[in-house]
Write a structure and sequence with these properties.
A nine-stranded mixed β-sheet has the order 1-2-3-5-4-6-7-8-9, with helices on both faces. It folds into two domains: about 120 residues, no CATH class; about 240 residues, 3-Layer(aba) Sandwich (Rossmann fold), CATH 3.40.50. Strand 6, helix 7 and strand 7 form a beta-alpha-beta unit. It starts with 15 loop residues before the first strand and ends in an 8-residue tail after the last helix. By secondary structure, it is α/β, with parallel strands linked by helices.
């Protein structure tokens, strides 16, 4: 058995080892599409160099440089090899109605009998790639014999290497959370696991903590919500909270248009962005640039966009955005809704350049907040931007809430 691949004795199913390999023909076609896809002419709007909430979107200059790098310098095979250097798996999960889904995940299994099961959930426009830097840190920090955790990083349904939602049934975040729970139970963690997430992954984690007994604790680095009715006065906010809280309002006003498009006309935007890799790059790169504390590298952005394109997953990854448009909006927003309160131990990491960094006192209204840490840097893609800091947060949180003697919190 290779390192970190020994399943726990409690596993109910045996996943299939998976290795990502895009065919030479697919890769050739992809490169040809990049070459043939034009960059639009110069306009007043796409000349603006601001990359923040006040900009008009992605700039033409950035796109020209990114396209040249994509064509001539980006090495997909190197990224593919890096992905395959981690243990990748697929496991068939049967839903309550009998439908079968192939769920992809990356995992580091520990040989310690008291290892804590820890699931890390990505968001949009992210993927399991966000957590590879953390997995790399863990591989360097621990051996399979002393790794304190069973780390599971799933691809959510509809994203990259997991099955898409069904075409004859509506699907939402609660459905995806149910499959994630079934995955963790199949891997042997019915007695207890910890969920962590940002963006859509924070919704998955909150649902698991609020509605599934096996989820014993939840750590979030995103908890966008409306101001609670009984929130303390703003004068009691920390200096960082007071300074960065307005980012949420700016985001709703100037950075939220994609939500309306993906939530109300997903078929249209799905068609548009499946027609050209350059179009997909513009749509997704803008989010990576605007939502990060420091600009990600071309390789980081192009790896994610390439994976989205090569797995044809963009149209099947945006179903979560329909929820507030199809259902009665949850009072207080999803994270602030009473129905989603997490009564288990809840942890929250504050990264100031998040699109909507929430004060500790607000998040405390959404559950049993027992752990909190405020950072000086970091944005929306915390696992990618600040892997050392987020890993330290999660490790400290787990150590503070997990009773190793009983394997419960």
């Amino acid at each position: 058995m290779a390192p970190y691949e020994t399943l726990p004795d409690t596993a109910k199913s045996t996943p299939t080892k998976f290795e990502l390999h895009v065919s030479d023909q697919e890769l050739s076609d992809f490169k040809q599409l990049i070459r043939l896809s034009p960059i639009t002419q110069e306009t007043y709007e796409n000349r603006q160099q601001e990359v923040d909430f006040k900009s008009y979107g992605i700039t033409r200059a950035w796109m020209l440089e990114a396209k040249e790098y994509w064509q001539n310098k980006f090495d997909w095979r190197a990224h593919e090899a890096h992905i395959n250097s981690f243990p990748n798996y697929k496991l068939k999960i049967r839903d309550d109605d009998g439908r079968e889904f192939d769920i992809h995940f990356v995992a580091l299994f520990s040989e310690k009998r008291d290892a804590v099961p820890l699931a890390l959930f990505h968001g949009w426009p992210g993927s399991f790639l966000e957590f590879l830097p953390i997995l790399d840190l863990l591989r360097r920090k621990y051996t399979p014999q002393d790794l304190p955790y069973h780390i599971v990083v799933p691809s959510l349904p509809g994203y990259t290497l997991s099955s898409p939602p069904p075409v004859d049934k509506d699907w939402d975040t609660f459905d995806s959370a149910r499959l994630m729970h079934k995955l963790l139970v199949a891997l042997g963690f019915e007695a207890g696991y910890v969920a962590q997430g940002g963006d859509i992954g924070s919704y998955i984690s909150r649902i698991l903590g609020a509605h599934y007994v096996s989820c014993r604790a939840v750590h979030l680095n995103f908890s966008m919500m409306r101001k609670p009715d009984n929130a303390p006065p703003d004068s009691e906010l920390s200096a960082a909270e007071a300074k960065f809280l307005p980012r949420g309002g700016e985001f709703v006003k100037l950075g939220h248009a994609y939500v309306a498009m993906q939530g109300t006309k997903p078929a249209t935007i799905g068609m548009c962005l499946s027609a050209s890799p350059i179009a997909l790059l513009a749509w997704i790169a803008e989010k990576f640039l605007a939502w990060s504390d420091q600009d990600p590298s071309f390789d980081q952005i192009l790896e994610s966009v390439s994976l989205y394109w090569l797995t044809r997953c963009f149209p099947t990854s945006i179903y979560t955005y329909r929820f507030p448009y199809q259902h009665e909006p949850l009072v207080g927003g999803f994270h602030g809704a009473k129905s989603q309160r997490v009564l288990k131990p809840l942890g929250y990491s504050f990264f100031p350049y998040e699109v909507a960094p929430m004060p500790k006192s607000w998040v405390a209204e959404t559950g049993n907040l027992v752990w909190h840490r405020e950072h000086e840097n970091g944005g929306h893609f915390a696992a990618l931007e600040k892997p050392e800091e987020l890993l330290a947060d999660v490790e400290d949180f787990v150590a503070s809430v997990w009773n190793k003697d009983s394997a419960k919190v």
